[in-house]
Amino acid sequence: MSLAWLALGGGGCGTTGKKGEPRADAGDASVNEDASRLADALSDVGDLAVADSAAESAPDATTDAPSVPDAPAEADAGFDAASDVSADAGSDAVTDTVAADAAEPEVAAACDAGVVASGHLVFQFDSKNAEWVKSLQWRDSAGTLTSNLVGYGGGPGCTAPYEFFGQAFAAPEGNGPYPVGGNNVTMLQTCGTDLTIVSQPLDCAKAAQTPVTTVYHFYDGAQADQVRITRTIGFDASTPKSSGTGMRVYVPRLSVGTFPNVLIPNGAGTAVTTASAPACGGDCFTPVGTSWNGKWFADVDPVSGRAMIVLRDPSMTSAVTLTVNNDGNSGSNLASFVVLQPADGWKAPHTEIEYLCFADLTTWPQAARAAATLPAGCGPPP
To answer: Does 360 fall in a domain?
Structure first.
């Protein structure tokens, strides 16, 4: 399977064009850069081209696709579990070449897809549907590289399984829409410390795709244990109102067998409770209030003490709730932020910015966890 490359309107880093004004933390200029790139990509989505002509072929319909949360109406067994693109810190020498939130290095006019220095994180993205994070590994404080932490399975769709790390779909489960799922076709570009994924106009079933752009920003130095994810879903005035209550804009699926626990900080941010993902076969919602502050949650491995903290950027102002859930086909914990739907539905593009920050009991001791105090290096740079 050949690689589908990203073609933005200007052909490279720092593409200029129409600029949106998304919410952003004034202290983190790179958030503004990402959001500008997202606005450019959405405005140019009609001009995107794919190098892999096979991605354009119509799939055979599957009549017995399982009923799972984001199963589209048409699918086939065309996804390739072996093809991928790596974003890998590699050796220490490579890791040390990228400074946290430093100015982007000089690059060719058109950045090439390939390796991204990613601090202590190693991501692998599928080459046909790059929204599918096929593998995620983390180098902990002892220097140990974990095995693959993600869960995926079910289906398959024609470019990815129906349940995977990186999805976007409505809540409660069983409701649409499904902006990122098993039939998406995308293009990918790496540029400096950013990796950008842009949807094509049509999915692999020849159906129109909601425009989606996702930017991964990798860090080094004091923030080498995290990645920032900025996703814009191109809703517009014609988008029908969802039958659900909200949207999981980004779903980080970890293996529920390894990460069964979800830490939830209370409304005051002074203590945590622990929810069980295996106990939630459907969505178990926690609204913002005395039980949750709406800022973060963490999936925890009770054996090793490793944790993935999911932190919402403080510039985000749209209302959210938290869902804890597990899916059997992928054996995954899909605890996620759910952005609540406006009263008349989504009628304009929505941008969400979240951080995935990894920690162990050395970098995030039990006492700090119990006090709902996050480790240093998680969230926007100071």
So the answer is: yes
Residue 349, CA distances (Å) to 193, 210, 247, 352 in order: 25, 10, 13, 10
**pLDDT one-digit tens code per residue, 260-312:** 999 999 999 999 999 999 999 999 999 999 999 999 999 999 999 999 999 99
Q: Work out the burial of residue 27: count CB atoms within 10 Å of its CB; fewer than 13 is exposed, 13-18 middle, 19 or more buried.
A: exposed
Run of H or E including 34: helix 29-43
Q: What angle do CA 69, 379, 146 make, to 5 degrees?
A: 65
Write the pLDDT tens digit of every residue in 105-163. Answer: 333 334 444 445 478 999 999 988 999 999 999 999 999 999 999 999 998 889 999 99
Q: What's the whole-model pTM score?
A: 0.76
**CATH code of residue 227:** 2.70.98
Domain that holds residue 116: 29-370
Sheet of 133-138, strands arranged across: 85-88, 121-125, 133-138
Which pairs count as long-range contacts for 44-48, CB under 8 Å and 24+ apart, including other chains?
Answer: 44/8, 44/9, 44/15, 44/17, 45/198, 45/199, 45/200, 45/201, 45/211, 45/234, 46/201, 47/7, 47/9, 48/6, 48/7, 48/187, 48/198, 48/200, 48/201
